[in-house]
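Troubleshooting log. The previous run stalled partway through. Resubmitting the same two chains, unchanged.
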Amino acid sequence: MYQKILLAVDLSSHAELLCQKAAEMAELHQASLSVISVVEPIVSDSAFDTMPPLPVDFDDLRLQSLRERLQQLGAKYGIRAEQRFLEIGVPKREICRKASDLVSDLIIVGSHGRHGVELLLGSTANAVLHHAQCDVLAVRIHK
Amino acid sequence: MYQKILLAVDLSSHAELLCQKAAEMAELHQASLSVISVVEPIVSDSAFDTMPPLPVDFDDLRLQSLRERLQQLGAKYGIRAEQRFLEIGVPKREICRKASDLVSDLIIVGSHGRHGVELLLGSTANAVLHHAQCDVLAVRIHK
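Second attempt completed without errors. Output:
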């Protein structure tokens, strides 16, 4: 039914649950599985920035730690190294772009089922649902 | 992976595609499949209603025609009679309530990937995603 699955994970939370579900899904459908995690850049507003420049680049450190986490998860759940992607940008845009590049037929995302303001502002699951050109499986994450 | 799937269809459009995908999914997961369709009542605003009462009840006719369509689809895709539901109400609420009653672990809905105003007002797929207590598979319907 599905041949190319793209799993989108937030490496900071619930990634294990999502990886496990996605791996099961891929096995059941005999589909190839790719994983993407998108990091939003830390934007410093220089007009209010009274801190002197720091000797280390926190963005670099953060990226490196996330890259390691992604490699760990990929290895654990049998996602090949060339199918693991760490991107910097706006999650919904990068996820949908990657799905389009890979010609994915299913995107799996985690969903917290947000309400109110978060719903209007758009959670990632919601935004992906509205922008994806393929099917989207939202895996419910219970707090 | 999934044991109880609830398919939500709008009987007026694309129901065949959704039934087919849901039936495949249920077979693959060896899950039981139920189907729900929710009809929003026609509300007539009596303050502006200058029409005399009509000799036929259009709501009844509409319901009967939808019920027949649901039975046809159910029979065609192997969904048992007692697992076919036609409800009147607000779609997101009735779908999520039925999923909860049936202890469904996956809801399948169609998604048009709406934008702008429709996104803010909330499509059914979007609303279900945010209210469901289980996973939601949004099947992309291309216009």
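Takeaways: Chain A has a mean pLDDT of 85. The longest helix of chain A spans residues 58-76.
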